[in-house]
Write the structure tokens for this entry.
Amino acid sequence: MVGRLIRLRFAIQRHTTAWKRQLGLGLGLVAGALTWAAVLLAAPAGRADVLAFALAGWLAGWLVGPVLTSGAAVLRPEYFALLPLPRRRLGFGLLASVFVGVGAAVTALAVLAVIAYAVVAAEAPAVAVAAVAVAVLAAALLLVLVVALSRATYALVGAAMRTRVGVELAAVQYGLLLSGTIAGWLLVSPVVNGVPVFLAGGFAGGPAGTVLGWWLPSGWPLRAVDAALAGDVPAALGWLTALAVAAGLAALAAAVLLAPAVGPRTARRRHRPLGSRALTGPRLLPATPLGAVLGKELRSWWRDPWRSLEIRTAIWFGIFTALFGVLGGMPEVALLAGPAVALVVALTGANLYGQDGTALWQLVVAQSPRALRADVRGRQLGMAVAFGVPAALLSVPTVALAGGTGYALPVAAVVVAALGVGSGLAAVVSVVAATPGVEPHERVNANDAGENSLAIQVSFWLMMVLLAPTLAMAVGLAFAPDPSGWFAAATAAVAVGSALVGSWAGGAVAVARLQARLPETFARLRYPGTVVTAAGGDVLDRLAHQAEAAAVQAAAAREVRTGR
Amino acid sequence: MGEPERAALRLDGMTKAFSGRPAADRVSLTVPTGSVTGLIGPNGAGKTTSLAMAVGLLRPDAGTALVHGVDVWADPVRAKQLLGVLPDGLALPERLTGGELLTYWGLLRGLDADVVRARAGELLQVLELDAAEDAGVLVAEYSTGMRKKIGLATALLHRPSVLVLDEPFEAVDPVSARVLRAILRRFVAAGGSVVISSHVMALVEDLCDRAAVIAQGRVLTEWALADMRGAAGSLEEAFVALVGERAVGEEELTWLAG
């Protein structure tokens, strides 16, 4: 069975874009070479720490990588749900198929650096032979452990979209990645500056060395080799056994988790959902079309795992950005936490209609000028509330952390402007670049909701441009030695003005566009790939055309993968 | 609305091609006021495409659709007020309960809050979705049959005069199907008109007074069912005679069972 699965995997991979695989292979080889170089270049005193750090990097890469790259599981367990195979055996088969691939091969190459570590450190040939034997065994076990853990995490996050904890897990990973790309340089620059020191002395007995070298299983091969080098056979065998047990547990967990999920799509609830007594309870929102849409949107942001994921990601993005700032010695960066959450509105809202899948049919058959306005404005308000509340809550401690109420107004200004401008941009882009994902009631994985990377790029840069006046004023206000009262008032005015104009104008454009082409917007979600918008026209038309072309390509790639 | 002799729904030359492949080819169909018309045809015949064009969900390449004389594509807002639509297999606001969905939907349609509350409660009860509502079950957790029923409730809520239902009985249990049929009969008795698509012949025969056969994107024929029965015996025989049958030969599939 494993052989067939591996052949199927290669058959499907032949259809993915070649440059992606080649880029992956290239990056993998570079990382593998760096791991070997680290061992060979490090001074004896720091060598163990350096290699422990590199191996921990491989472990982290395997844990985070497949979750973040969309459609990482080439063979989805659900494909095989109807085959007459024991579920556990299928799970092991799917796990085994992962080992035959570029990622596992490159990782194997990298973990074999443990052998180099053994050879370089050995003082006598007899010791070297034993140490190399231990190193080979340990490297193989580490490879099994890393790959199995990776698959287990991926399956957990997929299955986990059914539970709050799982959504949180995925959100932490996304948040870490986002903040890493924006504020990660704060951590990277000390590391880059410190490379020569690190190669010479490792962590110099610091806690990082203990954690990476002793606590994480990625450091255990080094402990086993060290024990072998010291002639302590029982200790070496002990570390190897520990590694084998860890690898076995990870493989078992992965096999269990990789068995196709056939249970209910939502976890069992103990209580009615919050605010669900629509027919018997009191009504808090106005009984108008706008109130109806706002109520639906707020409930969806709260209850839909894929929408919660967006909010939770935004929150973790803010938290990690603040953390990087504090760790990097620039507590002022922590002030960005609240604005960071608000900033995500423009990115995550860029596919509001796509998020709901074909549910847009309801607006089409209930079409009226009032309903269209209510739909767009209600969605904007919903977003502003769903992201505004966490942004405000996160801003309070970070302003305190950065030391001073003087930062409160600038931070509030940026948050308000970002929410307003973001909700305006999101409305336009969601209509113009509506992109279908997996239909809402069939979603399983964290990245099933569908997104349009082009639309997200456009939103992000437009957001930056439109926020520039507020940002400039806020930065000036925050760091001016003695800002006057009118400067503060002007900053507030610019922020509120940007927010009002941005949200109003964006919403108006979205409404006008929906009024003109509501059935076409629906068709893009209902018949992806068949209705191609015309090239040419105004800026929005051209963006729509580009976005649809990108979506059609993505859909084609997805169909090849899922074989639908 | 106006003159009673006007058809409730009239499709004329509705044509749609997807990527050059015709899905509906000059579909013309008349649904008289007060009738239940069944649209029958094999899989992929163009039933869903035709109905989507008739209710404003899919813009036709050519042709017109009139609801009580109002052009769906020229005056969509007025036409859509007259229509109640149940599409097949589309998403709903999945994270609402049935009651929340109906409340949202009624208010979006501009109905009064008290009217919405009363009608929604009654619809849930008649369609036997009230137990799920009491338990706070979300639409995402509904079974396929329950989704059909809540979809029908949304189609009825604003009191339309023409119902267009795509496969309304698919996956609905026999007891609920009787309830659905009773609802549709009451709707027609009160002056409404209904179009349903289906491939269940017995159901069309039992419920409809007219049937149109559609195959390969074309309407092959329209029958008043009373006349047709006299001529061909059963609807299924007449249908098969019309669209043709692929017989299973003696030598085929001999490995099955045994």
About this structure: Chain A touches chain B through 51 residues (CB under 8 Å). The two ends of chain A are 22 Å apart (CA to CA). Confidence is low (pLDDT under 50) at residues 560-564 of chain A. The CA atoms of residues 145 and 249 of chain A lie 8 Å apart.
